[in-house]
Design a protein that fits this description.
- The chain is an alpha/beta fold and 250 residues long.
- 26% of the residues lie in helices and 28% in strands.
- It has a single domain, classed as 3-Layer(aba) Sandwich (Rossmann fold), CATH 3.40.50.880.
- Strands 6-5-7-8-9 form a 5-stranded antiparallel beta sheet. Strands 2-1-3-4 form a 4-stranded parallel beta sheet, covered by helices on one side.
- 40% of the residues are buried.
- The chain binds zinc ion.
Length: 250
């Protein structure tokens, strides 16, 4: 492709420093693990960001050059600045930045703000999980098998309080009987959002080739759509209008 996709992988990066089990599985952090398995994709230009970095990892020069933002957070959602959340939402809505909340990012401020929901769901212990590919023709399912077996993953169950996904690509089955909409796509403004459930910090999901393929596909799907040249007519200000009404009115 002509232009690489600028991907920023944002991680709270707290469990992997304080929890021995998480540190053993993700010694460099979840964000670095994701970067490493994406390293052979020539279309991606990857930046890492963490909550404790200056400007919480996303100063203007990083966020304003990000095409797809991955987000992993859990125990410190409340520490994320509301002003940063507004900037993220603005960039999704008005600039078409893709947003990929992973696992416990269902409770993150950006997820809630962009989708307009609390993101609550039922929850349970880690157990055997099957991620069913229910939309094989979808771009995010490309090359993904009929199902992905995770021997140990945290249970996230229905009801999951989200707006009905525009496209539902994966559904989870859990050993103890629960189900969950685990791969959900939405469109907001000019941007695309893909939520994917696997990724508990003390489980090994990000080392699973099927999960890795889904994340890679998700980034490509979430990348901003190339926009046509505005026509020199009275309606040409549509996109300028979209950018002008944000962020206060969203
Ligand atoms: Zn978890």
């Amino acid at each position: 492709m002509a232009n690489k996709i600028n991907v920023t992988i944002w991680n709270e990066f707290t469990h992997e420093k304080s929890n021995a089990a998480a540190k053993a599985i993700y010694p460099k952090g979840i964000h670095a693990c994701i970067r490493d398995f994406l390293a052979d994709d020539p279309d991606l230009n990857i930046t890492l960001a963490a909550l404790d970095d200056p400007d919480q990892g996303l100063p203007d020069e990083v966020l304003n050059n990000t095409d797809v933002l991955l987000w992993w957070g859990h125990m410190r959602h409340g520490d994320v600045d509301d002003s940063l959340v507004a900037r993220i939402r603005q960039r999704v809505y008005a600039r078409g930045m893709g947003f990929m909340p992973l696992h416990s990012a269902h409770h993150s401020k950006p997820f809630r703000s962009i989708l307009g929901t609390n993101g609550d769901h039922s929850w349970g212990d880690c157990q055997k999980t099957i991620v069913w590919n229910i939309f094989p023709s979808h771009p995010i399912a490309a090359g993904v098998p009929d199902y992905i077996i995770l021997e140990d993953e945290e249970m996230y169950g229905e009801p999951f309080f989200i707006p009905p996904p525009d496209e539902l690509v994966f559904v989870n089955w859990y050993e103890f009987g629960n189900i969950y909409r685990s791969g959900c796509c939405w469109h907001r403004g000019l941007g695309k959002i893909f939520f994917f459930q696997p990724g508990h910090e003390t489980c090994r999901a990000f080392h699973n080739p099927g999960v890795q393929r889904v994340i890679r596909n998700g980034i490509h799907w979430c990348a901003p759509t190339e926009l046509g040249t505005p026509v020199p007519a009275s309606c040409r200000h549509i996109r300028e209008h979209i950018s002008e009404i944000a962020p206060d009115k969203y």
